[in-house]
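[User]
Protein folding is very new to me. Any chance you could explain this protein sequence and its structure tokens? I have pasted everything here:
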Amino acid sequence: MKVGILGGGQLARMIALAGYPLGLNFIFLDPSVSACATTLGRHLHGDYHDEYLLAELAKRADVVTYEFENVPANVAEFLAARTQVYPSPKALQIAQDRLLEKEFLNELGIPTASYATVDSWESLQSAMETIGYPAILKTRTQGYDGRGQSVLKSAADLKASWQKLNGLPSIAEGFVNFNREVSIVAVRSVSGELAFYPLSENVHRGGILRLSESRENDVMQAKAEDYATRLMTALEYVGVLALELFEVDGELVANEFAPRVHNSGHWTIEGAETSQFENHLRAILDLSLGSTAAIGKVAMVNFIGGKPESEQVLKIQNAHLHLYAKASRKGRKVAHATVHAATTEELEPLKKRLIMLANDVDDS
């Protein structure tokens, strides 16, 4: 069985690593000659719009998936006319446009921050009369890890923020005064089997995820599962999906969803009975889903911009290091590590040591 993946970054790499024990082979389409996943399978090197390469991918792969949501939706549609593509092009189309995403979530009864469409300087001024300050201006597309965003603290920030985003079609969002950030990683198979991982509690800085911890038996678990179920059912979704949420005074407000395996679920590699990556493959191949139960208490720390010496990480008890074979670069995710323990008290000092190592190399 051969799985095609649009994209050859670290998420594709971890999908392939999870697939090898299942006897799967992989073929990647990525425009970068140095894409880090491509040593694990065949690399179709070229643009995502190259119809010759897309046809080759469709011919050679039994099923195609993707590792990030900025793959053009028409590319997924081209492939879907020739082979199985999961998640569906519809999920991709909605997730990659912040306005469509907010509208879709609200239609399903899933609350979001207040928002308004911004297509011009005049509409930005008008939107802020409704949204109020503070707020955040976001491009509708091509935004991830804090890119395509600008904070609006007062009217004095409007002109510079509009210029920073180059006048691209955007949305203005009201700030959510949250108690904490969480996400739920969920999975749905071709046959409709559903499974949910324990909530991840997350810490971001500069729009980039820094820390995720598993939260078994969290009081918000049932509500998060309900929202994820609504989303996946409406989309007839297949694969892993992550829904990012804010907890606000005992309620959940959706931020965005990712139609793919997700950074906040990396702890599942060592910290769950079945990783999100293996379950994504099981789902798109319509195999029985594996248990999503957590194994003890787990934390995951991202290394941004650079990475510590491997020995510094590995000498921490119960630590596991994942290097992405990517060159260090400002603001770039180049590795992550997890630690696990039987109790929260035992986990805390191990987690703190990882965070210190991450801070030492962080140049974001």
In short: The longest helix spans residues 344-361. The mean pLDDT is 95. The chain has three domains: 2-85, 114-174, 180-361.
